[in-house]
Predict the structure.
Amino acid sequence: MDLMEKLVSLCKRRGYIFPSSEIYGGLNGCWDYGPLGVELKRNIKDAWWQDMIARHDETDAPEGAPGPFGMVGLDCSILMNPTVWQASGHIGGFNDPMVDCRETRNRYRADQLVVYRLVPEGGESAPVASDELLFAAPGEIGKTDEATLLAPHRKRVESLRKKLGDVRLLAVPDALSDTNLRERTLAPGAKEPGSLTVPRAFNLMFKTHVGALEDNSSTAYLRPETAQGIFVNFKNVCDTARVRFPFGIGQIGKAFRNEINPRNFTFRSREFEQMEIEFFCRPEEAGEWYRYWRDRRYAWYVKLGLSTQRLHLREHDGDELAHYASACADVEYDFPFGVSELEGVANRTDFDLRQHMETSGKDLRYFEDQEPDADKRRFLPYVIEPSAGADRAALAFLCEAYCEDEVGGETRTVLRLHPRLAPIKVAVFPLVKKDGMPERALALYRELRSNFNAFYDEKGAIGRRYRRQDEAGTPFCVTVDGQTAEDGTVTLRERDSCEQRRVPAEAVAARLADELKSSPGVA
Ligand code: ATP
C-alpha cells in the first residue's frame, strides 16, 4: 500500500474522513468529516482565524510588515446576486477545458492530460512523424516521474529502443487542440488511438434557482470562491468598521466547483472550504505587501508542522499569471501524489473593485481623510489575496503527520499532528476496570475536559488503548493505576517519544496547559 492508500484507510478507520452519503454509493467529489476530522478541520480554521484576524493587533504590526494594519472578518451568504458573477468574470470565464474518452468513458481536464511522444536521443526538434503514436497521461507536466508515465507503454518503448536506440519522452504542447495530433493520441487505458474528444469549455459553477420559478430570471450560483463576498462588502466595512488602512478582510466558508475530475481524496473536491483574505492597500505599496503576505502564509504552515523540505513557495512566471494579476505565488506541498497547490497568494491589482464599481455604478473608492494631498484622498486600493483551502491544509497536515515507527519491537502507526491541531489533546485511562481506578480516572477526565478536548477509555489492553490514541494523533495519555491510590500520582505518556513520567494527578491540568502552550506555533 502506498502512503495515500494507508492514509485514506486510517481516515476511514479512525473517523477522520468518510465518503459522503456512503450508504448510497457516495457522491463523487464530496466528503464528510467524522468525529476526529471535524475537530482537526475546526482547529485548522480556528488557528487561521485567530492568527490572521481575531488576535491581530494593529498597534503592534507583525514582524516584517511594512507598517501597522487592521484585520476584520466577514461571513457572507453562499448564494449571491448573480450579477456578482457577471462582474467578477466567473460567468464568462470560470471554465476548464474538458475532454472525454469515447472508448473508456473517462473524463479529463485537458490542461491536466499531457500528450507525450517518444523521440530518438537528439531528435527533440523533429516534427511529429505521420506514423508516430502519441500517448496521453494524466499528471501535470514535470510532476509525474517518467517511469510511471512509461509503465503502460513498456512494450512499445522496448521495440522503439531496439529500432532507434535511446529514446526520450517529450511533452507535446496543445496537442489535443490539433485534430491531426489528437487522432493519433492514445488515451489512458484505451486500446486504439483517436478516442479523445475536442476540448470543450466547461463552466465550473453550480447553478440553482431561487424561488418557485425555474427560469432564467431565477438562476443563481453556489459561490465558487469566498472572495467576491468580501469585495462586494468592501464599502460596508469601510463605512462601519473603523479599520486602520491598509487593512484586510478575511472569510472562511464553503465554496463549490463542479470539478471535471475530482481526485486525490479530498484534494480536489466539488464542495470545499476556503480561508481567504483580501488585503486592501495603496497601489504603490502593493509589491511590498504581496511579499509580506506570501512569506507570512508560507511561515504559517511551517509553524504548524509542515516541513520546509516538503513545502515550497513557487513564484509564477509572467506567462502563467491571470490577466488581472501582477504577481502570484503558490504555496505547494509535496503530497504523495505529487507537488500540488495548498494556497495561492496573488496581487490582484484593483481588478475586482474596479469591475464591481463599473458594474454596480457605486463608488467603491477608499476615502483617506488623513491624506494631506487632496488628489490622493480618494483612490481604488490594490488587493493582495492569500487564498487557502481548509481541506487541502487538513490533507497536508495529515500526510505530514502520518508515520510508522517501532516501539518495543512492534510497528505502530502514529499521527504526529501539532498539538494545536490534534483533535483530542488528552486521553484518560484506568489501567484496569477495578480497585477504584475507573472512578479516579473519570474524575480526572471530567476535570481535564473543562479545559481540553479529552477522551475517556476503559476498554481493552492498555497497549491497545495507547495505539488507538497514537493513530488518532492524541499528544498525551494519562493512566490511573495501582500506585495512584497510594501516592496520588498518574502516568503521563507522550505520543511521539512514548516516554512515561509519573505526575501528581492534581498537577496534570497545569502540566498539560504548559506542554500545549510551549509547543512551537501556539500563539
Ligand atoms: P487548482 O489549480 O488546483 O484547481 P486553483 O488555482 O483554481 O486550484 P484557487 O482558485 O486559487 O485554486 O483557490 C484557492 C484555494 O482554494 C486553492 O489553493 C485550494 O487550497 C482551494 N481549492 C480550490 N479548488 C479546490 C478543490 N476543488 N478542492 C479543494 N480545495 C480547493
User: Anything to note?
Assistant: The mean pLDDT is 93.
